[in-house]
Design a protein that fits this description.
heterodimer, A: about 110 residues, alpha+beta, 5 helices, 3 strands, B: about 190 residues, mainly alpha
Chain lengths: ~110, ~190
């Protein structure tokens, strides 16, 4: 796991939900969407993405369905209505958090203390 | 068909621990990874090794699944709420003078042994970190707990000469635990 992936831990669920916003994907495609969408920074071991997907499915944030591709069984996932609401809420929270951190980290004069 | 002996061996390790549906899903992901390397012109052996490295060591994958296994989570929940049930049932049995109830010593001993077995199986499931199959012991522990709750309720209904107020907490609590445990058992067994 790359160093950046360690920072991903608390945010993995919302990022997985985001990869499904444009439509259903199977596990490998989700992992690739994470990697490509982050410019290669979030390159998780593929096998560890599946437990997270199963957890999201048990929470009814995503739902899975089976198909057959090249003779193999494939499970694809899509967002549920609950998952879409969760994604929207998490996205809003993240924007507020990121704006606050950015405001603090940007170089500017600190207010003088009396 | 995964397409390479190394990949088949990797999947065989996972198949010894994980449910068949999960292994099918992992097989699809691993095969996709392998094929991507092959499409990039990598030779089969190198592609298989690269795919396995990218996919993750079986121990890492199994640990990820085990941490989130329904059985492990159920076992933790049942163990975590155990003291609350003890706090309800303890006063019920003491104030109700349970030692005077017409219950055979054999039944009492069986109850005690089953309680020990339930606790042992739940602890085993809850403390599993890499062995997914061990988390399934939570199903046996949960089923045993349902029996214990049912036996306790039956004892109160049939053998207790009087009702004492802690039973008003203990009885609904056990009924709720029976319902919730029965609802979670299929998931523990099949996932």
């Amino acid at each position: 796991m790359k160093a950046e992936a360690q920072a991903l831990k608390g945010h993995l669920d919302v990022l997985l939900l985001a990869t499904l916003e444009d439509g259903p994907r199977h596990g490998y495609a989700i992992k690739e969407a994470l990697r490509e969408g982050s410019g290669g920074r979030f390159d998780l071991p593929t096998g560890t993405v599946y437990p997270a997907l199963h957890r999201l499915e048990r929470a009814r944030l995503i739902t899975g369905s089976w198909s057959t591709v090249d003779g193999r069984r494939r499970r694809s996932y899509r967002l549920t209505a609950k998952g879409s609401r969760q994604l929207a809420a998490d996205r809003g929270s993240w924007r507020e958090f990121a704006a606050a951190v950015t405001a603090l980290l940007e170089r500017r004069p600190w207010p003088a203390t009396p | 068909m995964a397409g390479h002996a190394l990949i088949e061996a990797h999947l065989a390790v996972l198949a010894r621990h994980l449910p068949p549906d999960t292994v099918d899903e992992l097989a699809d992901g691993l095969t996709e990874t392998y094929r991507r390397h092959r499409d990039d012109g990598v030779d089969p052996d190198a592609a298989a090794r690269a795919a396995i490295a990218e996919f993750g060591h079986p121990e890492v994958i199994l640990a990820s699944f085990t941490r989130q296994a329904p059985g492990r989570r159920a076992a933790l929940a049942l163990l975590g709420t155990g003291p609350l049930f003890a706090a309800c049932w303890g006063p019920s049995l003491i104030l109700g003078r349970a030692w005077t109830w017409p219950i055979s010593p054999t039944a009492t001993a069986v109850f005690a042994l089953l309680l020990l077995a339930v606790v042992a199986s739940l602890i085993t499931a809850a403390t599993s970190h890499h062995d997914y199959r061990r988390t399934r012991l939570a199903a046996a522990g949960g089923a045993g707990l349902v029996l214990l709750d049912a036996a306790a309720l039956a004892a109160v209904a049939l053998a207790a000469p009087v009702w004492v107020w802690p039973m008003a907490l203990a009885v609904p609590a056990s009924l709720a635990r029976i319902g919730l445990t029965l609802r979670s058992l299929p998931t523990i067994v099949t996932r």
